[in-house]
From TrEMBL, chain A:
<dbReference type="InterPro" id="IPR046938">
    <property type="entry name" value="DNA_clamp_sf"/>
</dbReference>
<comment type="function">
    <text>This protein is an auxiliary protein of DNA polymerase delta and is involved in the control of eukaryotic DNA replication by increasing the polymerase's processivity during elongation of the leading strand.</text>
</comment>
<dbReference type="InterPro" id="IPR000730">
    <property type="entry name" value="Pr_cel_nuc_antig"/>
</dbReference>
<dbReference type="GO" id="GO:0003677">
    <property type="term" value="F:DNA binding"/>
</dbReference>
<dbReference type="GO" id="GO:0006298">
    <property type="term" value="P:mismatch repair"/>
</dbReference>
<dbReference type="GO" id="GO:0006275">
    <property type="term" value="P:regulation of DNA replication"/>
</dbReference>
<dbReference type="InterPro" id="IPR022648">
    <property type="entry name" value="Pr_cel_nuc_antig_N"/>
</dbReference>
<dbReference type="InterPro" id="IPR022659">
    <property type="entry name" value="Pr_cel_nuc_antig_CS"/>
</dbReference>
<keyword id="KW-0539">Nucleus</keyword>
TrEMBL record, chain B:
<dbReference type="GO" id="GO:0005739">
    <property type="term" value="C:mitochondrion"/>
</dbReference>
<dbReference type="GO" id="GO:0005654">
    <property type="term" value="C:nucleoplasm"/>
</dbReference>
<keyword id="KW-0479">Metal-binding</keyword>
<dbReference type="InterPro" id="IPR002421">
    <property type="entry name" value="5-3_exonuclease"/>
</dbReference>
<dbReference type="GO" id="GO:0017108">
    <property type="term" value="F:5'-flap endonuclease activity"/>
</dbReference>
<dbReference type="InterPro" id="IPR029060">
    <property type="entry name" value="PIN-like_dom_sf"/>
</dbReference>
<feature type="domain" description="XPG-I">
    <location>
        <begin position="227"/>
        <end position="299"/>
    </location>
</feature>
<keyword id="KW-1133">Transmembrane helix</keyword>
<keyword id="KW-0540">Nuclease</keyword>
Length: 264, 463
């Protein structure tokens, strides 16, 4: 038996909007600690990891660990039917092949039940080791979204380099080049507007921009975004979800061609 | 024409291969369509090289695809080359060994491909009208170049790194099979002449497809083309399938892509089907893992090879009346062909007089292949632009604009293949959570072996 009641229903709606373009089908894993998801995009370049801790729910009951395979497009369709102020409750019986979304209006005068079929998804779970990153950049999420959007109108790839000067995003395309440098800036009115750069070692990595543009769909979830970079590791783009958890995107870098004999 | 290695298949096989090659994106002028729209284009000319699909024609193709879908059912029913009925046997008895994957998920992977098989497909389908094919000014067939070029570009664009493996000398055991194919081709040539006299268009096409053979010239052309494209070519000492599997076993490539189930018997750790199918057909790639096959069937590799020989392979006859399922039952019961022969009811089943199953087994287990010691170098390099233009445009009459565009595509694809994969950083971890629906599936799994046992018991009684 599973029953999760989320007062801030809009949060789940935003989560779905953030991941549904990247991943088609995914398993949601429920355990006593929380509601989570890990899934790769079809080309196995990007990975999304979501965690909503049980404490963030008004009511959280999960008798045993279960994983529910859902088509995210269909789930997003159902959640679109919920109002922004609605309370969303997720219910599933043991051994059942459906999940129920219940939407309650804040005044309790309307209750809607949506039932969705579950699917069997054979997905690989990747073990993500804890790592020390060479550089961690925290900046306003809207700023990051703007940079990714602007650069993608010029080129396909972005080089992110962190030096003690700041963080530089650069691209190159048929029509020309673009470079955007963000310096550390902590003298702001609101803490979420700050740009904070922690750097142990300078690092420079190349990524495909289209994935970043998909990640920035999570911007409504958080005012800030954190980029963690290490050479020879995928970048982590993290949006914290207040009092609940996070949504993290991992993206494998582009590798120069000379190490041909790396992997079959 | 030199008879380098010849192929001829019976009608059903031609149909299958036709299905495979049809609309590789390259072969939009596949047989049946061609016939229907003859009046649109009375003659195949070199103008139709590459990207000859005009938008209205593409629309017509949709309907044609529905046509092909009907024939698709044949696909699984007919005998195919390789191991008879193995796909079905695995689907029924080892469902977990096959996995549907998206085409895109193979980017960055190195994939070995049996080139000779591909060339044969191209010769049958690409740019054919009746018995006329795409040719250059000198009248030499260029269908194989067209097909190879477009298909390879499609793979490169998906970020896949293909390695083409060419057949060498056929093993002695295959002579018999080849002789059969040869005589069938001779028959087809006669039929073709009759049809030409009678002027029956359908027959002309049907029989001329059956007379197709891959010559040394075709192979050499394709090798040259691939080298110019910067794609590595491996020349197998004997069977290409075996060489592909060897590359895979040594971890030089990620998987073997073929339509021939032999690859599994040769021990390719990962084997892909439908990788080269056109995206328009929306068929997912089917990935087989030999380790899982063995685990699910509960057989050792040696027993699996015996199972394949019993089911029917290219190298020797099988026992009449023993199909895949019976073979599986017998192998599970007795463990090897020798033991089965000791216990088999000789009156019920006739064992062929000349049955070289031991040689066949040896061929599967120790095929003649190049190994690590032979230092095969797989290197993907930038395309030789000038070389490609000279070869394709000047020598073989391809349209120069289209080739230039295609070269641009290859160069762009090169850039794409530098994208890393997450699996090279993070390793798969066991998933602790239990799926909601697990209950059902375990129940099903419990039921299946039970019913199998029941059947097995009945079989024993009959003896």
């Amino acid at each position: 038996m599973l029953e999760l009641r989320l007062v801030q229903g809009s949060l789940l709606k935003k989560v779905l909007e953030a991941v549904k373009d990247l991943v088609n089908d995914a398993n949601f894993d429920c355990s006593a600690t929380g509601f989570s998801l890990q899934a790769m995009d079809s080309s196995h370049v990007a990975l999304v990891a979501l965690l909503l801790r049980s404490e963030g729910f008004e009511h959280y009951r999960c008798d045993r660990n279960i994983s529910m395979g859902m088509n995210l497009g269909n789930m997003a369709k159902m959640l679109k039917c919920a109002g922004n102020d609605d309370i969303i409750t997720l219910k599933a019986d043991d051994g059942s092949d459906v999940v129920t979304f219940m939407f309650e209006s804040p005044t309790q005068d309307k209750i809607a039940d949506f039932e969705m079929k579950l699917m069997d998804i054979d997905s690989e779970h990747l073990g993500i080791p804890e790592a020390e990153y060479h550089a961690i950049v925290r900046m306003p999420s809207s700023e990051f979204a703007r940079i990714c959007k602007d650069l993608s109108s010029i080129g396909d790839t972005v080089v992110i380099s962190v030096t003690k000067e700041g963080v530089k995003f650069s691209t190159r395309g048929d029509i020309g080049t673009a470079n955007i440098v963000c310096r550390q800036n902590t003298t702001v009115d609101k803490p979420e507007e700050a740009t904070v750069i922690e750097m142990n070692e300078p690092v420079s990595l190349t990524f495909a921009l289209r994935y970043f543009n998909s990640f920035t769909k999570a911007t409504p979830l958080s005012n800030t975004v954190t980029l963690s970079l290490s050479s020879e590791l995928p970048v982590v783009v993290e949006y914290k979800i207040a009092e609940m958890g996070y949504i993290r995107f991992y993206l494998a870098p582009k590798i120069e061609d000379d190490d041909e004999d790396a992997k079959p | 024409m030199s008879s380098y290695q010849s192929y001829i298949y019976d009608l059903s096989e031609v149909k299958i291969i036709e299905e495979i090659a049809k609309g590789t994106g390259t072969s939009s002028l596949g047989g049946r369509k061609e016939k229907k729209y003859d009046w649109l284009r009375p003659r195949v000319s070199k103008l139709h090289h590459l990207g000859h699909r005009t938008p209205p024609f593409r629309f017509i193709l949709l309907t044609v695809h529905i046509f092909t879908a009907i024939f698709f059912s044949f696909f699984f029913l007919q005998n195919r080359m390789g191991i008879k009925g193995l796909t079905k046997l695995l689907a029924d008895n080892a469902p977990k060994s096959m996995k549907e994957q998206k085409f895109e998920s193979y980017f960055g992977r190195k994939i070995a491909i049996d080139a000779s098989m591909s060339i044969y497909q191209f010769l049958i389908v690409v740019g054919r009208t009746g018995n006329e094919m795409l040719t250059n000014e000198a009248g030499e067939v260029t269908s194989h170049l067209q097909g190879m070029f477009s298909r390879t570009i499609r793979l490169l664009e998906a970020g896949i790194k293909p390695v083409y493996v060419f057949d060498g000398k056929p093993p002695d055991l295959k002579r018999q099979e080849l002789a059969k194919r040869y005589s069938k081709r001779a028959d087809a040539t006669e039929d073709l002449n009759d049809a030409l006299e009678a002027g029956n268009k359908e027959d002309i096409e049907k029989f001329s497809k059956r007379t197709v053979k891959v010559t040394k010239q075709h192979n050499d052309d394709c090798k040259k083309l691939l080298r110019l494209m910067g794609v590595p070519v491996v020349e197998a000492p004997s069977e290409a399938e075996a060489q592909c599997a060897a590359l895979c076993k040594e971890n030089k490539v990620y998987a073997v892509a073929s339509e021939d189930m032999d690859s599994l018997t040769f021990g390719a750790s990962r084997f892909l089907r439908h990788l080269m199918d056109p995206s328009s057909k929306k068929i997912p790639v089917m990935e087989f893992e030999v380790a899982k096959v063995l685990e699910e069937l509960d057989l050792t590799m040696d027993q699996f090879i015996d199972l394949c020989i019993l089911s029917g392979c290219d190298y020797c006859d099988s026992i009449r009346g023993i199909g895949g399922l019976t073979a599986l039952k017998l192998i599970r019961q007795h463990g090897s062909i020798e033991k089965i022969l000791e216990n088999l009811n000789k009156e019920r089943y006739q064992i062929p007089d000349d049955w070289p199953y031991q040689e066949a087994r040896k061929l599967f287990k120790e095929p003649s292949v190049l190994t690590n010691d032979d230092q095969i170098e797989l290197k993907w390099s930038p395309p030789d632009e000038e070389g490609l233009i000279t070869f394709l445009v000047n020598e073989n009459g391809f349209n120069s604009d289209r080739i230039t565009k295609a070269i641009e595509k290859i160069k762009a694809a090169k850039n794409k293949s530098s994208q890393g994969r997450l699996e090279s950083f993070f390793k798969p971890a066991p998933n602790a959570s239990v799926p909601v629906k697990r209950k059902e599936t375990t129940q099903k799994a419990m039921k299946e072996p039970a019913s199998k046992k029941a059947k097995g018991g009945a079989g024993k009684k009959k003896k």
